[in-house]
Please model this.
Amino acid sequence: MQVPAHVEYERASSVAHALSLLARYGPEARILAGGHSLIPMMKLRLAQPETLIDINGLSELSYIEMTGGELRIGTLTRHAQLLDSAAAGEHFPILHDAEKVIADPVVRNWGTVGGSLCQADPSEDLSAAFAALKASMVICGPDGSRTVSAREFHTGPYETVIAAGEMLTEIRIPARPGGGSAYEKVGRRVGDWPVGAAGAAIWLDGDVVADAGIGLTAVGAHQFAAPEAEEFLRGAPATEESFARAGEIAAEHCRPASDQRGPADYKRHLAHELTARALRRALRRARGG
Amino acid sequence: MSSPRARCAGHCAGPGAADVQITVTVNGSAFTGDVEPRLLLIHFLRDHLGLTGSHWGCDTSNCGACVVWLDETPVKSCTVLTAMADGHRVLTVEGLERGGRLDPVQEGFARCHGLQCGFCTPGMMLTARWLLDHNPDPSPDEIREALSGQVCRCTGYENIVRAVRWAAQPQGGDGHGDHRSAPGGSQ
Model:
């Protein structure tokens, strides 16, 4: 039987209260959102917090809204809510692509967007999607809030820039005209973590790529991104040849590790192929297809 | 700062953290009491309330044998702390029937041989009920998608899909399986 170790439990009644509880209980306290990453880690003693601070009552952290040219997603938004959001699907179909292949419908009912990001698993799908979209993360702490780019958020496997006493409250994605996006994942079976996955966002100026964002999952890409491939695409014609080359570049710069999900060579192949596929589908969407 | 108890928490059988008081409405009946913060909802339902219809399977939120509703939503109760259910409603398979009458989903599973050993069945039925409340006429593919987080090792799923389809038909559905206005549903 797997059960978590003894742990103290506090229920936060507001963001300010959650921050004061974090301050009171110190660095061994953890925010508990859906718990679908943290509780399994606690069962295995891979995480052993002294105190859980439950934020599930903070409905003010559960929202998806277009405001000021940005899509804003509250940290407590459940995966199922993001998958159901027409605004998210309309502006950033990559988010729906990714959500459809995260775990299963029942897990998505309770697991949260913010919890997934803060778990910072190198195989987590939304991290690459947000990297591709050049999103930013709002982090609240005792001295107020700060905003960091999605590409500065992760400091390594299972590590983020969130310091003791701070918590993630919101994800922001700038909406820019002329864009399209997509996510492509290969897993061993339905609902599993990816062997490899790639997300792409593309913004067009006529037939030329004005800007591109590429996110990579589970293939050892620094900060889930492929900046060299993005740089190549900027100003390049939006063609199959450009996308194939971008895939090659993305694969050259990632550092996949062989593990039970597959050998490094295969993962590198996936980084190449899935980047090209995601770009292809993102282009179709940018053109209204 | 680390308390002695926290340091040895994984190994000691010593006293736990402070209990937390909860009030949970399970199948329309309110329960108020103190529980350990680490107590998982599945164990609370089975071991504290004696509601053994919900099954405890993989422990890793993969198999779905432990699915119950938390308010309006099916969740995997092996990965939810009981404390998180405070102030909420829980629906288990014991609460599916109404006035001695089986939910059409239950009747469908019986009529269409949607179960063999029965281990996965309570979770399957709770997710199926939720699906039919939101999509009264789901296609076989939609049923398979909705149940894709739940594992059956006996049936090959064919009869489970048939059972849910049966419950969706007029003779089965009839709209009387909606638990969103269940007793205790004031949340």
About this structure: Chain B touches chain A at residues 1-3, 5-6, 9-10, 16-18, 20, 36-40, 43, 59-62, 64, 67, 70, 73-76, 79-81, 83-84, 86-87, 127, 145-146, 148-150 (CB under 8 Å). Confidence is low (pLDDT under 50) at residues 1-14, 174-187 of chain B. Chain B is about 30% helix and 15% strand.
